[in-house]
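so my prof wants the structure for this chain in the tokens format not the other one, which i didnt know existed until like an hour ago. anyway here's the sequence
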Amino acid sequence: MEYLIPSSSHLRYFTGLDIEHIFMFQNTIYTYDLNMKLVKASYRGNVKHIQYLFEDLKNRDIKAPLKNLDARFYNKISKYVRSIQDCTDEFYLIRMNKEPYEFNRIRRAAMNSLRVMYDLVDEIDPSMTEKEIEALLKIRTANHELSFRPIVASYSNAKYPHYYARDVKIGAGVMIDFGIEYRGYKADITDFVIFDSGYLQDKYSKLQKIFKYIVDRLSPGMLASKLHKIYIEAYKKYDLPLPPHAIGHGIGLDIHEYPILSESSDHVLMNTIITIEPGYYNDRYGMRYERDVIIYDDGIEVLDI
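here's what i got, hopefully its the right format
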């Protein structure tokens, strides 16, 4: 069975091409007139106009990452192929096991992110608003691609996974969740900046202890389901309620990819990169502490300064 790969992180992983509106089938790249010159300059293999793709797909049994095909294109190719199977999971399993160059790129992305974070923390004061901090972060990252839209959230706003900053003063503390890309590879870090040495500091210190508890027990070759059990143990030990999200996720060319860190996951944690992000939320406040972690075949590296 042959693979059809559209423009996506999958195509970038297999070919190095980061160009929109292209497709790969049988090591040939298919594209439109406007892209033809760029693709030919970037790809040493065979390049054809998109019109030939449908003819080449006739009566074929193919696999494709269906999440990366829009409905109109899927319906069109379905008229030509004999069968089509989804290979999204197959591709993510391949990509889960990282190469040394991928470790280096994530490390560079994480270090760039951390330098920005620590510089930003020195400039924040409790009179600022979420939007002002977001604007400052955009200035500090103007020369970088961001992994995702940053989250700058105070009070209970931090409990929302895709919160957008508002014109609200941060008061006693603010959570900043962002990441910088390096050559397509994405970092993801979170800090909680505190201006209250009491209640908030106590909870945040516990999150950092939970992080350390988990990392100290993480070992190459461990199943993701075992890591989930350690995560639950840590929350019980430090007497905090479990947050409404997983302990973390895989990262790479996508901000969320394999391994999946859940109770039922059978993914093996070796030669891969994950985030560990314990969180605490109640009706008044929310906070997370997050760092990226490389799991080699012989050890662990927490990406921090």
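also thought this was worth mentioning. The CA atoms of residues 26 and 105 lie 29 Å apart.
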